[in-house]
Fold this protein.
Amino acid sequence: MSTTPTARLVIIGNEILSGKVEDSNGPHLLRRLRQLGIRCTGVDVVPDELDRIATAVREAAEAADVVFTTGGVGPTHDDCTMEGVAQAFGVELVDDPELVRLLVEVWKAPPSAARMRMARVPAGAEVTAGHRFPQVRFRNVWILPGVPQLMRSKFEAIAEQLEGVPLACAALRTMQRESAIAEHLEATDAAFEEVEIGSYPRWDTDEYRVLVTLEAPDPDRVAAALADLAARLDPDQLRGLIPEYRPEERAP
């Protein structure tokens, strides 16, 4: 992995794109990746179509250090994520002996074609024993289930293998509008190029009008940038400085 590891998400499912089911896997993974210090560079939502899955996975794997797919790993006709990953890398789909054993001996599953679909993985995939069902990884792609509870448990089982660089983050709130502070944001941004500054207006509260976040790996530079920006803004309009801001810990 690079100094600042990157990730891409591939969320798979017609039910997400049709609005029948609200995706909770993407937001959860984004919060956890942030906590682990891994920067997500993109999220793709694709239907249960083999070619679309293969293209999304291939492009994501080329663009990021690690990829997480969710959905499409069950026994039904539209569960084609494993096949999509195999196609993305030009390998065959094969029966994994450990998954076959689990299905037959542990789950006591009748050896029907539908059931045994869940034993098929891309040739060369790493299958690691886990609670109830193993984790599957092919190269830099982790293949996770779509059921939120299962997805979260599978992710936590591999989280300790993911080494990131947590960002220091600070924030301030002001009653000034974005148009009034834009030039000050630009000035601080120019003075602290390594600090990423985000500006987020709010219209649903009387407590403040804009939330500004500042983040970078170096906490000292973040603190200095926060002080610099605060000094540029109208002190009578400030509604609080937050030296340690953790948006990923806020309730979704």
Observations:
- The chain has two domains: 6-159, 168-249.
